[in-house]
């Protein structure tokens, strides 16, 4: 295919790789090897193909890239997660020179799929902090992750109401509003934490309740439909 540009080469290689199976993957690799010119898409496509069980080939190709971009790093992390290699996935994530939203999402989602809730919560707390933790848990729609993260945050910030608000809002997100009030208030009472304020605002679509830290009424942490 001497007259075809790199975009067409990439599309054909992607077609082979997407078919699955070693035969099609090898055909894609043959085209990759004879391409007159490669870009990051070319390399990342093959890395993604090798992620399906061909870890040594995936690593060899990644290490042979002239320059890895964030997509390359995301692909290698996802490859390790896909093959249940949590240690290498976290190691490569930590070594990434730059990250985007997909980087954190891929790692946390992969850890959750593999039952590593504690590790996912620790990473979320360390990278997102309390302020963005609730948003991250909502993104993954995972109440159990919110619980694990909140419990870890309680140890780090024993006098803060933020982790309790996180749990409160996550329960409410999945329709367990009454349960969230009872459980979270019991936890706060047990740990001698001031209750957050619940500010209810009437709207055309119903009642919206905002959960605010009682020590700072202007700092809203969540917005829920009642």
From TrEMBL:
Gene3D superfamilies referenced in this protein's UniProt entry, alphabetically: Tetratricopeptide repeat domain
Signal peptide limits: 1-19
Sequence ranges of the PPR repeats: 5-42, 69-103
Single GO BP term: RNA modification
Alphabetized UniProt keyword annotations: Repeat, Signal
UniProt cross-references to NCBIfam families, sorted A to Z: PPR
Name this protein carries in UniProt: Pentatricopeptide repeat-containing protein
Organism per entry: Acer yangbiense
Molecular function as annotated in GO: RNA binding
Lineage: Eukaryota, Viridiplantae, Streptophyta, Embryophyta, Tracheophyta
């Amino acid at each position: 295919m001497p007259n075809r540009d790199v975009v067409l080469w990439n599309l054909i290689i992607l077609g082979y790789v997407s078919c699955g199976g070693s035969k099609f993957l090898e055909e894609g690799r043959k085209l990759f090897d004879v391409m007159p010119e490669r870009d990051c898409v070319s390399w990342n496509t093959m890395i993604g193909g090798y992620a399906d069980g061909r870890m040594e080939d995936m690593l060899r190709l990644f290490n042979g890239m002239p320059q890895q971009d964030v997509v390359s790093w995301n692909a290698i992390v996802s490859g390790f997660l896909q093959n249940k290699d949590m240690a290498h996935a976290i190691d490569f994530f930590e070594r990434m020179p730059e990250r985007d939203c997909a980087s954190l999402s891929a790692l946390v989602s992969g850890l959750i799929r593999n039952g590593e809730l504690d590790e996912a919560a620790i990473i979320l707390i360390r990278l997102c902090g309390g302020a963005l933790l609730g948003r991250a848990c909502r993104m993954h729609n995972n109440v159990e992750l919110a619980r694990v993260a909140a419990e870890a945050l309680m140890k780090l910030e024993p006098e803060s109401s933020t982790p309790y608000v996180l749990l409160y809002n996550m329960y409410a997100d999945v329709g367990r509003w009454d349960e969230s009030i009872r459980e979270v208030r019991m936890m706060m009472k047990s740990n001698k934490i001031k209750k957050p304020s619940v500010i209810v605002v009437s709207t055309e679509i119903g009642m919206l309740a905002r959960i605010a830290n009682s020590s700072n009424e202007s700092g809203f942490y969540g917005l829920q439909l009642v």
